[in-house]
Structures are given as structure tokens and as C-alpha cells.
Amino acid sequence: METKTAVYPGSFDPVTHGHIDIISRGLEIFDRVVVAVATNSEKRGLFSISERVDLLSRIFAHENRVEVVSFHGLLVDYLKGSGYKTILRGLRAISDFEYEFQIANMNVHLYPEVDSVFLMTSQKYFYISSSVVKEVAHYGGDVSAFVPENVVHALKEKFNQE
Ligand code: ADP
């Protein structure tokens, strides 16, 4: 049987339990999930691309159905080059929907064979975003409910709190 792979793209700066939840649920639907860290985001990141890839890789070290990669340029070009045709994204709020709808349509325009699959956020992760996590961590707040252990440490290191 053909292996069904979904590509889950994003900034992951840094990865949160919200992302991990989408990946875990994605694995219930797909055989493999390729987590693709985008390197061309306009947003200036707190973590470098290799740091983000490293944090993600450690979290999924024991899950051989998850692969972590980074890509540069357009997602559709990465998809064309790798032969994948399914994009996985998470939806948090109505505000996410408008943006996601725009991007998904643009991706189909650029690569008609591609399809996007959206998973609704689990209720308990609805309010988690990488930016809020960074803001709270920056001022020394406890973010251990929102990100895994290795990310808690990485944030403390970034903000010289260790
Ligand atoms: P981007 O900058 O491309 O939005 P993010 O790393 O912020 O990248 O998010 C990647 C994907 O994960 C997006 O589909 C986003 O909606 C989803 N996501 C982010 N946070 C959560 C969360 N708390 N629960 C579910 N999905 C989330």
C-alpha cells in the first residue's frame, strides 16, 4: 500500500504542545508526518533554524514516522521537489482561518495537485502560540505547561535565566 505522508510546515519558533498535538493527531491519519521548518519567514526568529530543527528532532527522536526538515523558498517548490502532495496545518481561531484559506488557495494555484488538510486545535491548546510563549518566557514566566522540557531549557538559555 502507498505510504501517505503529510508535510506540516511552519515557523516552530519554538515548537509548542499545540504543534506537537497536531503532529500526534496527524500520525493517526497519515503514515508519516514531515515537519518542515520554513527558513524564509519574514518574522525574525528567536531560535535559529538549526536550533528549531534540533528541538523538534529531539522531541520526536523515538517516533520514526516523524521526519524534521527545513526548507528555503516556497513550500510548493519543496513539495514538488520531494514528491509530497499533502499539507497539514492546525487551525486555532477564526483569525487563523482567513490567513490559512488565502495560503491554501495560493498553494493550489501554484501547484494544482496539492491539497491542504486542517486539524482543529484541541481545546486546551487553543490559546498557545509560539509568540505568547516567547513573551512570557522573556519576562521569566513559567511556560512549562505549554512547551516540552527541552524547549523550557532552551528558552531559559536564550534569555540568560539559567
Ligand atoms: P506559521 O508562522 O507558519 O504560522 P507556526 O509555527 O506559528 O507557523 O504554526 C505552524 C502551524 O501550527 C500553523 O498551522 C498553526 O496554525 C499551527 N499551530 C500553531 N499553534 C497551534 C496550537 N496551539 N494548536 C494547534 N495548531 C497550532
Give the CA-based shape: globular
The total count of helices amounts to 6
Bound heterogens, unique? adenosine-5'-diphosphate
Order of the strands making up the biggest sheet: 1-2-3
Round the mean pLDDT to the nearest integer and report it: 94
| Low-pLDDT sequence parts | none
The H-and-E topology, N to C, reads as EHEHEHEHEHH
Proportion of strand residues: 15-25%
Helical content, roughly?
Answer: 40-55%
SS-based class: alpha/beta
Counting DSSP E segments of at least 2 residues, the number of strands comes to 5
Radius of gyration: 16 Å
Q: Any overview of this molecule?
A:
- This protein is α/β, with parallel strands linked by helices.
- It has helices at 17-29, 49-59, 75-82, 94-110, 130-138, 149-158, and strands spanning 5-10, 32-38, 66-71, 86-91, 115-120.
- It has a three-stranded parallel beta sheet, sandwiched between helices.
- The termini are far apart.
- 28% of the residues are buried.
- The mean pLDDT is 94.
- The structure holds adenosine-5'-diphosphate (ADP).
